[in-house]
Structure formats: C-alpha cells, structure tokens
Specification:
Strand content: 15-25%
Mean pLDDT: 92
CATH topology: Beta-lactamase
Largest sheet: 8 strands, antiparallel
Helix content: 25-40%
Low-confidence stretches: 1-28
Radius of gyration: 19 Å
CATH architecture: 3-Layer(aba) Sandwich
Order of helices and strands: HHEEEHHHHHHHEEEHEEEEEEH
CATH class: Alpha Beta
Strand order of the largest sheet: 2-1-12-11-10-9-8-7
C-alpha cells in the first residue's frame, strides 16, 4: 500500500495537477452519435486492458439530460456508477475559483480582475506584488509552483493525509523569484490558484470554504459539493483506483488530503451538481474575461481536453469538429474528469472515470480513447 502511495504521491501531486503546454489539433467534423452508439463506445473503453473500473457521463441539454455509465463505481461491491455519487474534481476546482472572482466583482467590496496580489495579500508572495488576479487565473503570473518545491514534496511524501493550511502552501515558494515577466507567456502553476483563493478571502472577509458554500453551492443548489479538510470522502462516493495491468485495482480514494490542493484542486462534487454549475459558470466567466479585454492563450488543460485547447482564466476553450465548448479537465489519484458547456451554458457535459489514466500515466491507448470519446460526447451535447 505505501509503495503505491509513494508512487502516487510523486506522480500525482507533483505532476498531475500541472497543465500541459501543447495544444491538440482539432479533428475533422465527426458524425453525431446516438445514445446507443455513445454507450457502445463507453463500453468498449471499459473493456480495454488498462481501463479504469468505472465511467460516468452526464449530458445536459436545457431541461433534458442523458446519463450513461459503464463498469463499476466500487470494485468490492460491484455497484454501478450513478449521477449522485461524490468524487474528487481535481483541477476542475479552478473553474470555481474563477467563478468566485466574477461573483465577488459585484459584491460590497468589488474585486476586479485587474487587482494585484500586493493590493490584497501584501507580503504573502513578495515577488508577485504586481501580478494581477487575471494573470493568476490564466496562469501567466510567472509564479513558481509549490507542488514542485523540494520542501513540499518531502513533507507530502512523509504524510500524504495531513492537513496543509493555504498560507503554508504559498510559503514553500515565498522566497522564489518570478520565472518570467507577468503576462508574457502561459505556464501553469498551482500557486496561482492558491494566491487567487487568498485574494478572494481578503476581498470578502470570509474563508474560502464559506465563500463556496454561500456564493456557489447554495445558490446553484449543489448539496453534494464541499471543500473537505480530511481524507474521508462523503458517502456515497465513486471509489478512485490506482490500476496496473495484471494487478488488482488499489483503492486510493481516501489516501491524500485534498488540502494540499485547496483552491487549486480540493473540491468534492457529484455529476448532478456539476451539471448545475456549468450553466452559471461558463457564461459568467466568458463575459467577465471579454469585458477585461482578455484573450485565450495556446495551451491545454491537464489532461488535454477534446479538440484544440486554449487557456483562459479558470476556463479552457475546446474547439472540436462539432463545435466549441468551454470548461476544465482534472486528474487526481483515482480520477480523471472533464466538465464543459456551450458558451450560453445551456449544453453541458460532465465526464468522470475512477482511475488516473492520463498522458504519461497508465495506458496511452486508453487515455487517448477517453479523449476521443469526450469529443463524441461534445457532439452529442451540441447537436
């Protein structure tokens, strides 16, 4: 168990939350699959060697929804996945960070995407005092990534289940210089979203968990969503597994404390809740981004989403042969996620699988098959 835990810790928390920089090319326009064809595609991936134990897909089109699943949510019981099960959403949590920033812009203490680190949290990251909230959310800040800091890796490996306060996370890179001039290029750093979360706390006078509850989870009717400080998952949940071909899947659902990712990737949610989040999140963030004069930067989410990827503030543009959707992907030990919607938020896709099969980890064939399947799900949602 611990050998696997160390491997997961090294690969996952040091690299899994990092965004890749190479954008995938958009495929030719595919045919729109029927529900039955989409289900057969999902079943085929689930039956492949090296595939995750279970898959969950929720497509929302206005008031109409389709839910497809394959495999199992729990290897031990054989229970099938369902739309109400909890799972770790990983970097999809960055979408919530962006949405909170937009919501706070209309609050009693207005927060602007042009506000700087020095204005709200002076002294926390001295080299980043002039970095703007927009640059943090879009990963153009130049901040060093705390997840790659030797001190963080050492402490995390020693005790993956321990709680990390957010200011301790920024503390691992507090003395580091910026890696490039802010705004000059795109490069992912988890420190960006920790700093953004701290700014949102300072601007509102409330804790980040309280902000999520009052500004997002409550108003959008997301009762299955939370930002936990402990390794225990809310029940019922889709178990997450570490898998290797020829070996029994190892349950890693409650191995790592999500506080090590906090505003960058610590949220737990359900497919049903995320389908409620997309209609509010996508239009709001796109509108604020455009009003701020922002432009998408070449760059993919991690793991790459379907089609050609480009990066915005807590939101990615995915151009596919069937049209464009906006959202975020994520991966965490035991999970791979894709959440996206149309520009008006009326069409939404929530995809979850319970193993971290991503580029560079697990079966490359299965990983690419998942990405192709996500493109077909986009076609189904948009057309």
């Amino acid at each position: 168990m611990w050998t696997s835990a160390r491997r997961l810790a090294t690969v996952a928390m040091v690299a899994c939350l990092a965004l890749g920089l190479t954008a995938a090319t958009a495929p030719a326009a595919p045919s729109v699959p029927t529900t039955m064809q989409l289900q057969r595609s999902l079943d085929a991936i689930a039956d492949a060697p090296g595939a995750p134990p279970g898959f969950s897909l929720l497509i929302q089109r206005g008031k109409r929804s389709e839910y497809l699943h394959a495999g199992v949510a729990d290897v031990r019981s054989g229970r099938e996945p369902n739309r109400g099960e909890h799972f770790r959403i990983a970097s999809v949590a960055k979408a919530f960070n962006a949405y909170l920033a937009v919501e706070l812009a209309t609050g009693p203490k207005p927060l602007s995407l042009s506000d700087t680190v020095g204005e709200w949290i002076p002294g926390v990251l001295p080299a980043a005092e002039k970095v703007t909230l927009l640059q943090l959310l879009q990963h153009t800040s130049g901040l060093a990534d705390y997840i790659r800091a030797d001190a963080f890796v050492k402490e995390f490996l020693a005790e993956p289940g321990r709680y990390f306060p957010p200011t301790e996370l920024t503390g691992f890179v507090k003395g580091e210089p910026l890696e490039f001039v802010p705004g000059s290029r795109y490069h992912y750093s988890d420190t960006d979203n920790i700093a953004a979360g701290l700014i949102e706390e300072a601007a509102s006078g409330r804790g980040y968990e309280s902000l999520l509850a009052s500004e997002v989870f409550g108003p959008l009717r997301m009762p299955g969503s939370s930002l936990p400080r402990v390794v225990r998952m809310p029940r019922p949940y889709m178990h997450g597994y570490d898998i290797e071909v020829g070996k029994k899947p190892e349950d890693v659902s409650e191995l790592i404390n999500p506080s090590g990712a906090w505003a960058s990737g610590g949220i737990v949610s359900t497919p049903a809740d995320l389908a409620r989040f997309v209609p509010a999140y996508v239009p709001a963030v796109l509108r604020a981004f455009r009003q701020a004069g922002g432009a998408f930067r070449p760059g993919s989410s991690s793991p790459p989403g379907p089609g050609k990827n480009a990066a915005g503030p807590g939101i990615f543009e995915y151009k596919t042969g069937c049209g464009t959707v906006y959202g975020h992907t994520g991966s965490f030990p035991g999970y791979r996620i894709f959440v996206a919607g149309s520009a008006d938020g009326r069409r939404a896709i929530v995809f979850v699988t319970n193993a971290q099969v991503v580029p560079g980890q697990g079966s490359a064939k299965v990983s690419e098959a998942i990405r192709r399947f996500q493109s077909r799900a986009v076609c189904r949602a948009l057309r």
